[in-house]
């Protein structure tokens, strides 16, 4: 009797040992620590920055350490970001303005959303970025670069040793095999001079030569239109992001020369961090022309690039995060 009971206990113990790894594997995200990120963006020009930053803030899988602004009136951009952080319950995330360089192409059409024109913001986004990198363990922080790379370029020049502590840079920019399409969510069959790189081509050259791992999300993989039904659900969802996004969208749509359907360019790099399966990067040697054209050149790879994307998977991620009451499986690209 005792022997039979002992054998039963041993069998149960062995079964538990076999089932435990399977149970752990079934919930990997619950055990993974949040990914520490710095977000550099040109908030206030196109509406995709608002959706991308909201996705970062709403995702427990990401831990934003700092938001910096780039290109044009970076102080105004930082004020808008600070207001979004405050209105969505993330006022502890620091925000800092990068160098105010650029042309009128960086005009900020969403400036009317700002309630306080005297809102104080940190003035030196470059030093703020480098300070985070010096304070965190090397190889831990990912930089999400979602605008022209002028602030990133300034940080690399000021302290290349601290900049090299980045784990990687995931950026939205460039156009390799396909370009801007005639309407939101479509591509042309030929590459284009993509906006972010056209405004600062030398900055991308220097980043690609820095030795820091770079992953590029070009127009090839970022032309994703936001469906009208999903947009409506995001704006009506019981989240702190619904109100700010709907107001920012209205300001953008009133001035947009591209139509009123948002293209989620900057959302794709965020989605890539949250769900690596949205695309499969390939190693490439990327060259940059003075006019901002990015090309596949000869030589050892200096970056990886996503040349396609699972649009339905990206939209499902946006739906589940920013419209949590919606059934993501019903979203169609």
Automatic annotation (TrEMBL):
GO molecular function, one term: hydrolase activity
Signal peptide: 1-25
Ranges of residues in domain Inosine/uridine-preferring nucleoside hydrolase: 37-315
Pfam entry (one): IU_nuc_hydro
Record carries keyword Ribosomal protein: no
InterPro entries in alphabetical order: Inosine/uridine_hydrolase_dom, IUNH, Ribo_hydro-like
SUPFAM superfamilies named in the record: Nucleoside hydrolase (SSF53590)
Keywords: Glycosidase, Hydrolase, Signal
Name this protein carries in UniProt: Nucleoside hydrolase
Organism: Pseudoxanthomonas winnipegensis
Lineage summary: Bacteria, Pseudomonadati, Pseudomonadota, Gammaproteobacteria, Lysobacterales
């Amino acid at each position: 009797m005792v022997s039979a009971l002992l054998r039963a206990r041993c069998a149960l113990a062995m079964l538990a040992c076999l089932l435990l790894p399977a149970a752990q594997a079934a919930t990997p995200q619950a055990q993974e620590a949040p990914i520490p990120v710095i977000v550099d963006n040109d908030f206030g020009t196109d509406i995709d920055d608002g959706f991308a930053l909201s996705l970062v803030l709403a995702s427990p899988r990401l831990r934003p350490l700092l938001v910096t602004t780039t290109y044009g009136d970076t102080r105004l951009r930082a004020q808008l970001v600070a207001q979004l952080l405050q209105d969505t319950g993330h006022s502890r995330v620091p925000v800092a303005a990068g160098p105010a360089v650029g042309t009128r192409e960086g005009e900020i059409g969403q400036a009317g959303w700002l309630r306080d024109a005297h809102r104080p913001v940190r003035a030196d986004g470059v030093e703020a970025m480098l300070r985070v990198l010096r304070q965190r363990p090397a190889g831990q922080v990912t930089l999400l670069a979602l605008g022209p790379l002028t602030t990133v370029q300034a940080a690399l020049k000021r302290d290349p040793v601290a900049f090299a502590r980045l784990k990687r840079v995931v950026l939205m920019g460039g156009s390799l095999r396909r370009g801007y399409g005639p309407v939101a969510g479509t591509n042309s069959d030929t590459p284009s001079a993509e906006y972010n790189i056209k405004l600062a081509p030398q900055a991308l050259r220097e980043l690609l030569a820095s030795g820091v791992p770079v992953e590029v999300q070009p127009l090839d993989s970022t032309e994703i239109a936001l469906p009208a039904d999903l947009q409506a659900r995001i704006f009506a969802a019981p989240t702190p992001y619904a109100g700010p996004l709907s107001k920012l969208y209205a300001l953008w749509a009133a001035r947009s020369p591209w139509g009123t359907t948002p293209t989620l360019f900057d959302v794709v790099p965020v989605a890539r961090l949250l769900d690596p399966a949205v695309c499969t990067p390939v190693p490439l040697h990327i060259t940059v022309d003075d006019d901002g054209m990015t090309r596949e050149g000869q030589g050892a790879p200096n970056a990886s690039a996503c040349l396609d994307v699972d649009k339905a998977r990206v939209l499902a991620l946006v739906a589940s995060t920013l419209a949590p009451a919606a059934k993501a499986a019903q979203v169609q690209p």
